[in-house]
């Protein structure tokens, strides 16, 4: 696959090919730990992929084979969050998690090596996860003085069950790719050397499917676990579909033409 890189980023790469956007966290010297800049750049890249009508699926990954992402960069962690050049303490990975959930295109985590801490939560937030056979999963919060009580906890619990989620968080153990597969934490385990090839194959399969059907399914599955915020997203999608109908367009046209709308030709469905 012939990736085309674009954008001026310091901590990430943004690449596209064949309707796929690949977003790579590029801080391998820190096992792809994120700092505020990384997250701002990731948000920008995900927005680009969302707005680009040629893109139907997004891969999130980490540079190199050692790590997908090791979470927040503990070396720039201040007393109230992760601190960038502006001196402000932030937990802006939470904004990125919400963005991935709301983005109406499938996002696939492509995991080689460690998906740990806040990096583990990122893969949990993605729609699908393809793991290399060297992947390692786990949370570290209670060890390093942190926790994620949002998606990191209850979405994980929905994914692997309450008992397993408690074990993962309370004990901070690490799990290999096969164990992750057995607990439903990942969709597939593939040899490291075939990780991208297999992930792209999944992307190509997704690209053959109806974009609106995928959008509605993502919204529907997330609506159950996101409560009112999920319903807000799903309701927005219902409005989108309605706007695309002649019935809704009659209302708009009548207003513009300063006449009474005529909805009589539209059926009252059972
Ligand atoms: C990821 C892991 C298990 C890898 O171990 P290993 O043995 O393969 O590598 P090593 O030697 O530990 O790491 C290589 C280099 O990367 C740095 C290390 O410090 C080391 O550099 P030097 O010190 O030798 O120069 N590095 C790795 N992870 C880093 C990190 N997160 N921040 C800064 N530098 C890092 C092992 O490295 C590990 O356990 N890493 C820490 C994982 C962790 O605890 N992450 C934070 C969880 S809290 C969080 O992410 C969070 C949250 O809970 C809520 C909101 C926001 C964030």
From TrEMBL:
Q: Where does hydrogencarbonate bind?
A: 139-141
Please give the catalytic activity noted in the UniProt record.
2-succinylbenzoyl-CoA + H(+) = 1,4-dihydroxy-2-naphthoyl-CoA + H2O
Could you say which residues are annotated as the site Important for catalysis? 82, 243
Region (Disordered) residue ranges read 251-270
Instruction: Name a GO molecular-function annotation.
Output: 1,4-dihydroxy-2-naphthoyl-CoA synthase activity
Q: Which cofactor does it need?
A: hydrogencarbonate
Query: Some GO term, biological process aspect, for this entry: which one?
Result: menaquinone biosynthetic process
EC numbers on record? 4.1.3.36
- Give the UniProt entry's GO cellular component terms: cytosol
Q: Which Pfam families match?
A: ECH_1
State the UniProt keywords alphabetically. Answer: Lyase, Menaquinone biosynthesis
Its pathway? Answer: Quinol/quinone metabolism; menaquinone biosynthesis; Quinol/quinone metabolism; 1,4-dihydroxy-2-naphthoate biosynthesis; 1,4-dihydroxy-2-naphthoate from chorismate: step 6/7
Q: What is its EC class?
A: lyase
- Give the residues the record marks as binding substrate: 31, 70-74, 82, 114-118, 140, 146, 243, 258
Record-linked PROSITE patterns: ENOYL_COA_HYDRATASE (PS00166)
Per the entry, what this protein does is: Converts o-succinylbenzoyl-CoA (OSB-CoA) to 1,4-dihydroxy-2-naphthoyl-CoA (DHNA-CoA).
Q: Which family does it belong to?
A: Belongs to the enoyl-CoA hydratase/isomerase family. MenB subfamily.
What's the protein name? 1,4-dihydroxy-2-naphthoyl-CoA synthase
Give the organism the record lists.
Thermostaphylospora chromogena
Give the gene that encodes this protein.
menB
């Amino acid at each position: 696959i012939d990736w085309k890189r674009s954008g001026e980023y310091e901590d990430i790469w943004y690449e596209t090919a064949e309707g796929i956007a690949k977003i790579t966290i590029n801080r391998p010297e820190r096992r792809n730990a994120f700092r505020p800049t990384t997250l701002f750049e990731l948000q920008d890249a995900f927005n680009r992929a969302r707005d680009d009508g040629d893109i139907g699926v997004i891969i999130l990954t980490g540079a190199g084979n050692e790590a997908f992402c090791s979470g927040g960069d503990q070396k720039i962690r201040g007393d109230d969050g992760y601190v960038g050049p502006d001196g402000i303490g932030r937990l802006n990975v939470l904004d990125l998690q919400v963005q991935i959930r709301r983005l109406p295109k499938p996002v696939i985590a492509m995991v080689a090596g460690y998906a740990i801490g806040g990096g583990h939560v990122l893969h949990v937030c993605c729609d699908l996860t393809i793991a290399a056979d060297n992947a390692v999963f786990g949370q570290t919060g209670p060890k390093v003085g942190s926790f994620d009580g949002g998606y990191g906890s209850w979405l994980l619990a929905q994914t692997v069950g309450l008992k397993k989620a408690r074990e993962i968080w309370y004990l901070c153990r690490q799990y290999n790719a096969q164990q992750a597969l057995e607990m439903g934490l990942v969709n597939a385990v593939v040899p490291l050397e075939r990780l991208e090839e297999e992930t792209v194959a999944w992307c190509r399969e997704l690209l053959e499917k109806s974009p609106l059907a995928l959008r509605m399914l993502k919204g529907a599955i997330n609506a159950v676990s996101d409560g009112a915020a999920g319903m807000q997203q799903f309701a927005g999608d219902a409005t989108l579909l309605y706007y695309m109908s002649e019935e809704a367009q009659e209302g708009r046209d009548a207003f513009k033409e300063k006449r009474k709308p005529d909805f009589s030709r539209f059926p009252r469905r059972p």
